[in-house]
Specification:
The chain is mostly helical. The chain has 19 helices and six strands. It comes from Kitasatospora albolonga.
């Protein structure tokens, strides 16, 4: 059986030179930063894909561009450029045959790293699932980087072109991440916030078109005789760019699983996001002491609800602190249950007041804030910052010295003023 010449050549390109080393290089480039920050992503699909996206684009992109550039410059280094002009195969076919193996191995390396990272985070996750669209877009970006680097290597005849291109690519990808303009969403290495959010349905195809347009235009302009055809992918990319810029943060929507609540049966009821189901029993146990101190207090919360960051709890519910992986939560274990309970108590006594009240320095307003601190410290002792003895510390001593019945009555009057910003309405200690 006679092998097809193109297939035989492609298999040879896959195995020769530095091309096969692209896969392990990309896999390690992604895996090493992920391993060093396991506490920050294990247990949450969104947190995992945030860091995977950053490493694949910001670190993997320059590496793959450099590999493509080195591959593109091999004919200049070997002095065989003139020989290739004598073969019947066209420039476009030769380009694809030589650049595609770099892209293939780059994607293989990325997928190996992604599979390993997902296997590491899966045992700690609750509901939800990773986004296939994010994986596809990151893989396509590496393909575009390989072909772009290859063309640069063919045009730029310098042995140091590959490392210089890698450095330039890193800067080109990294600098826009510090901008606040909507234009930053055109950057393939933009740092997306994916905790509790997933891409909209059209995110992947639009980003594939945007990323592929310039790369295809560059390849077409270099390898195709009718160079005006390079305008076609550029026009397509320009057509979707306004959609990406104007959408901005709306490129992502709230994960439906994050809106679903998982609750305990006991009263007071504790509810966490569907994404944090494994944390429900730990959260409930951490608040046991807080519930005990509020037992019998008129107006004490009957429901504690975890809401997405920036959201508001349902009517009549008290918000729970947001779980931050790597800080309050490590591999789906509460890092410090006492501090978590104190943060809940602090949120229970916190007031949503206008700036004029927050910065006021009169004695009545200061008394209100110090009373709030004293209540939080009494609800969860020995977990918050130390109070000043002459102010909040004195209020805490008075609250502690009260009889049980007197304290319950005072706390009931206090809880009735939680949404009030008038210092005169807060009962004195």
């Amino acid at each position: 059986m006679v092998r097809h010449p193109a297939r035989a050549a492609f298999r040879a390109e896959l195995r020769r030179g530095i091309v096969p080393w692209t896969a392990p290089a990309v896999a390690l480039t992604i895996a090493v930063p992920m391993i060093s920050k396991t506490a920050q992503w294990q247990g949450g699909w969104g947190d995992t894909q945030e860091l995977l996206h950053s490493t694949a684009t910001l670190l993997g992109g320059p590496l793959v561009a450099a590999a493509g550039c080195w591959q593109g410059g091999r004919e200049h280094r070997r002095g065989t450029g003139g020989l290739w002009l004598s073969v019947p195969r066209g420039r476009a076919a030769r380009l694809v045959m030589a650049a595609l193996p770099v892209a293939v191995w780059a994607v293989v390396g990325q997928l190996v790293a992604v599979a390993a990272v997902f296997a590491a985070t899966w045992p700690y996750t609750g509901a939800g699932r990773p986004s296939a669209g994010m994986i596809v877009v990151d893989a396509w970006f590496l393909v575009c980087a390989a072909f772009t680097g290859f063309v640069v290597g063919r045009v730029w005849r310098w042995r140091l072109a590959a490392p210089v291109l890698a450095a330039a690519t890193y800067l080109a990808l990294g600098v826009p991440t510090y901008f606040s303009s909507g234009l930053r969403f055109l950057n393939p290495a933009e740092q997306y916030y994916l905790d509790g959010r997933v891409p909209v349905g059209w995110f992947a195809p639009v980003m594939v078109l945007w990323l592929g347009g310039p790369a295809l235009a560059l390849v077409t302009g270099y390898a195709v005789r009718r160079r005006f055809l390079a305008l076609v992918p550029l026009v397509a990319a320009a057509a979707v760019a306004p959609l990406i810029v104007n959408s901005g943060e709306d490129l992502f929507r709230e994960d439906p699983v994050a809106r679903r609540l998982i609750c305990t049966d006991a009263v007071p009821q504790v509810c966490v996001s569907g994404l944090n189901g494994p944390l429900l029993s730990q959260t409930s146990d951490a608040l046991t002491g807080l519930h005990a101190r509020l037992e019998g207090v008129p107006g004490a919360p009957l429901r504690y609800v975890q809401v997405p960051e920036g959201g508001r709890p349902p009517a009549g519910a008290t918000p729970l602190p947001h779980h931050m992986r790597g800080w309050t939560v490590v591999r789906d274990r509460l890092a410090d249950p006492a501090s978590y309970a104190y943060a809940t108590a602090d949120g229970l006594s916190a007031r949503d007041c206008p700036l004029s009240v927050l910065v006021a320095e009169d004695s009545a307003t200061q008394r209100m804030w110090e009373t709030d601190d004293a209540v939080a410290h009494w609800l969860v002792p020995s977990a918050g910052p130390e109070l000043l003895p002459e102010t909040g510390g004195a209020y805490l001593k008075r609250l502690t010295a009260m009889g049980d019945a007197e304290r319950r009555a005072w706390l009931g009057r206090y809880l009735a003023t939680r949404t009030v910003c008038d210092p005169k309405a807060v009962p004195a200690l």
